[in-house]
Amino acid sequence: MKKVYLYATCLGTAAMQESVLNSVKLLRREGVEVIFKKNQTCCSQPSFNSGYFKESKNIALYNINLFEKDYPIVVPSGSCAGMMSHDYLELFKDDNNFERVKEFSSRVIELSQYLDEVLNVNYEDKGEPIKVTWHSNCHALRIQKSIQASKNLIKRLKNVELIDLEYEEECCGFGGTFSVKESEISNAMAREKIKNIQKTGAKYLISGDGGCLMNIAGTMSKMGLDIKGVHLYDFLVKRLEGVKI
Amino acid sequence: MSEQHKLPHEQIVKIKLNDEQMRENLSNAMHTLQKNRLKLIDEKFNDWQGLRERAKQAKNNALMSLNERLLEFEKNATKNGIQVHWASSDEDACEIIYELMREKNISKILKGKSMASEEIGLNHYLENKGLKAVETDLGELILQLNGETPVHIVVPAIHKNRYEIGEIFKDKLGSELESEPEKLNAIARKHLRDEFEGLKMGLSGVNFAMSEEGAFWLIENEGNGRMCTTASDIHVALCGIEKVMQSFEDAATMVHLLTPSATGQFIPTYNNIITGPRKNGDLDGPKEVHVILFDHHRSDMLAHEDYYEALRCIRCGACMNFCPVYDKIGGHTYQTVYPGPIGEVISPNIFGIDHTGDILNFCSLCGRCSEVCPVKIPLADLIRKLRSNKVGQGKNPPLGANMLHHNAAEAFAFRNFEKIATSGNLWRFSLSKAHYFNWFIQSFKNTLPVVKKWSQFKDLPQIKKNLYKELENIEGVSCE
Ligand code: SF4
């Protein structure tokens, strides 16, 4: 029996709890046992990206102590997975704790990578035929490199047509604290993204990242568009259960 | 530098974001450059990544032995008849040019494209002394006529479309109103031909200097650079010390990366390799060639454990061509000579983080710049490190860090964040208090007056469930 830690991320525990529960469902479906550490918090990306390295290191060490056993740490977010599997190493480059950090980081994996590459899941799509488009989160794309795995999962669904998004590799403007500090530039970036999403003609935007979704879908809903942003793991569960999106 | 006229950060952002025409011009131009680059790499290169690695090594080798390289360059260049000058500051560099002009009784020089001359503020310096520097690069010329500075390090006037350029030519040169590229070119050519006549001193930058050869390499597309370097009696080249490399082969590796990265061309239209002044029997070429090797805080950067990496930059502009922030706000918003991701790294190091540090905000850390940079400068990581220096953390802070005013309220918010994020109880307690996800934003509300605007643009998700309770009820899940 496989056993994993689930790292829910700060967004997951605070706002996107549905997606966390669906992530659990996807793991349980494959018979994987899930350990949920109740004291888990955040990967420290907000402070790290703002330059507060001292605070970030303390948060990282907190996580490293919390997820002490040898299980894989599965994260339903490429951004946080990238932070913990890659950026922690940078943060602790010249630190005494480096070896411990390295051990922790090597266990971190994004959920779609775990489903696609480790479990090689088999999916039966019970939903109606639909067209969707995909937004790549920058950190998932360039640091965690989990985008291919995420798309592979969607491609396993026979009734889902995945339409390419033009300029997919351009940032949507979230960037954590960036969207707060430079809200107007961030909004201009989100609008540009949305213009391209509209061009695909798809009514659903799927993404594996809660932050980007909150940014893009939040802007689309404010604009009154009838395009829905759906988290990858919510989407998968609904397709597998044949529930309307 | 024109930093005296700096506008407040928020104000310049607003102005530029509202400039629809500029944004459209930039977005079109950037997407074309991106496509050209990708297509070329795909079609013409077998091992682009290998070439990048080689270039990184070659440049690092040169930087790690820079002292030796510079002295070797001086020795060999002098042997070739090139006069080598040393300048430690921007002022020094300007003064050397000024002295040369005075000595020869010259009141006007013609310039090929050179960001180095922008960096040292040459035009302004000469103007104050009653002397003139005339731009000959088409983009630079357009901007000089219009009283602007370059918006991009490779394509300085990329924010203007051909109709706007036609208007500028009509207003400033008294030409007919045109918008066809050929006709616009003809107007510029005629204007410049008149300037080139009787040219005494030409100024250029340097792309790569080769220490073993004592020569330097200049690439360009328009041919005006060649005019500036060969048609004049005296050629002066401005060269940052980091441009010196060991061998001709090393420089050739860089040129192979530079044009594809910059514009998506396989090779530049003109390769000028300058080995010295006109020799006996030569039919043309300048009678004197001068090179000014200037430092301007580059040795400080070289001594830094992280920021030295930015000295590998070959000024190809790819990082800005691919930057999703740059194409929304344009290069002028950075209000410093070097814009875009590389500007965010070198401007604080060269001009001081105290008055250029605000541009570190112009980055969502998407990492695309690091991905495309041909010499593998980890731009996003360096920007993050500079942010850390800006808030008073990090080792070995750059120039001007001691003059920074730290945002105490922000620091407090992050200390608070640390406290909550290192305690499961506090974490759950603060979540239970939040009706929206914005508790995270709430923690910054005292420091960041823009929070309201954020929710102005976006609807926020609502919390619906008690996550912990639901998890406990799932079979096969253990909550520890
Ligand atoms: S940092 Fe890299 S991509 Fe940017 S201009 Fe320099 S060499 Fe080109």
From TrEMBL, chain A:
Q: Name one GO cellular component term.
A: cytosol
Q: What is this protein called?
A: (Fe-S)-binding protein
Pfam families assigned to the protein according to its UniProt record, in alphabetical order: CCG
Kindly list the residue ranges recorded as spanning the membrane: none
GO molecular function ontology, one term from the record: oxidoreductase activity
**Entry's InterPro entries?**
Cys_rich_dom
Which superkingdom? Bacteria
Q: Which residue range or ranges hold the Cysteine-rich domain?
A: 5-84, 132-216
TrEMBL record, chain B:
An example Pfam family from this entry, by short name, is Fer4_8
One GO MF term on file is: 4 iron, 4 sulfur cluster binding
Q: Residues in domain 4Fe-4S ferredoxin-type?
A: 304-334, 353-383
Coiled-coil intervals, chain numbering: 23-76
What the entry lists under SUPFAM superfamilies is as follows:
alpha-helical ferredoxin, NagB/RpiA/CoA transferase-like
Annotated keywords = 4Fe-4S, Coiled coil, Electron transport, Iron, Iron-sulfur, Metal-binding, Repeat, Transport
Alphabetical list of InterPro entries matching this protein: 4Fe4S_Fe-S-bd, 4Fe4S_Fe_S_CS, FTHF_cligase-like_sf, Helical_ferredxn, LUD_dom, LutB/LldF, LutB_C, NagB/RpiA_transferase-like
Its Gene Ontology biological processes?
A: lactate metabolic process
Q: Which PANTHER family match?
A: LACTATE UTILIZATION PROTEIN B
Q: What is this protein called?
A: LutB/LldF family L-lactate oxidation iron-sulfur protein
Q: Which organism is it from?
A: Campylobacter sp. CCS1377
Q: What is the lineage of its organism?
A: Bacteria, Pseudomonadati, Campylobacterota, Epsilonproteobacteria, Campylobacterales
